Amino acid sequence: MKKLSVALLVCSTLLFSACSTDKKTKSTDSTSKQETKVSLTKDSKEKADAEAKKKAKEAEKKKQEEISKKVSEADTAMKAAEANLTDETIAAAKTAIEAIPGGNIDLQKRLETATANLEAIKQQTTQVQQQQAATQEQQTTNPDPNFIDEDGNGFDDRSVFNDPTARAEYARGEAEAQREWEQSQQNIQNGYDPNGQPLLPGQDHAAGANPDGSPDAWVQDQIDWAIENGYSNPDGTPTEKGQQAIDEVNANAIPTDDQY
Which of 27, 57, 146, 210 has the fewest CB atoms within 10 Å of its CB? Predict the structure, then answer.
């Protein structure tokens, strides 16, 4: 009986041990499968993230290439407009600039300047046409019955312009006025005066200058004053007195942010 009890005990122990081992094996297999599943999910996510970044980078590159292309096209159109100011060239440049994603500040400023220059040309042309029309109308409605022009020079032979010297002086003045007008139109088309200075908005001259690039009346007065008072030489270079004044001004000048 005792032996039978011992045998039963041994059998129970072995059976329990087998069950425990089987449960442990199943638990281990389950954990391994879960870890494998988690690993696969992580790898898939990393792969998807990498693919998304790659696509985003390619899309950004393509976007920048498209912007560069649009800027180049707009710059070409803007140069054509600046070289030949017309409503058509300005409209083409405007369309090209508006097609740039996000716009372009430099090209927009050039467009505004060109548009202002074109408007100035139109205004001047209109004024000339109006003056010519008024003159023609006056000559037509109020002709001078005593007008005599035997030499065909366009002047009344009774006027002071019948004097050759007076006519020559008048002709020189007319030629100078024509040159100034042509220079004015050229400045407006180029956006700069003969000295390379940028024009004032909507004007045909740079700040402090005439259309031909020479100093305007106010600036010339300052130059004459500096020469008369010993601050400047006739060639524009400062005298010793003038240089001392410049040095004193620079020494007392308030430093800008860039100088700190």
Answer: 146
Query: Per-residue b/e over 45-64, b at no fewer than 16 CB within 10 Å?
Result: eeeeeeeeeeeeeeeeeeee
Looking at residue 226, its pLDDT comes to 87
SS (H, E, C) 139-193: HHHCCCCCCCCCCCCCCCCCCHHHCHHHHHHHHHHHHHHHHHHHHHHHHHHHCEC
Closest CA to 184 of 160, 164, 202: 202
Residue 209 bridge partners (DSSP): 215
**Structure-token pair, residue 252:** 């007392």
Q: Give the separation between CA 237 and CA 239, rounded to whole angstroms.
A: 7
DSSP 236: S
Name the band, by pLDDT with cuts 50, 70 and 90, for residue 18.
Answer: very low
- What's the whole-model pTM score? 0.38
Tell which wins on pLDDT, 31 or 226.
226
Burial bucket for residue 108 (CB in 10 Å: 0-12, 13-18, 19+):
middle
Q: Look at the alpha carbons of 166, 169, 175, 179 in this order and tell me if their dihedral is positive or negative.
A: negative
Give the side-chain half-sphere CA count within 13 A for 53: 6
Burial 8-25 (b: 16+ CB within 10 A, else e): eeeeeeeeeeeeeeeeee
Q: Taking a C-beta distance cutoff of 8 angstroms, is the pair 115, 90 a contact?
A: yes
Torsion sign over Cα 21, 24, 30, 34: negative
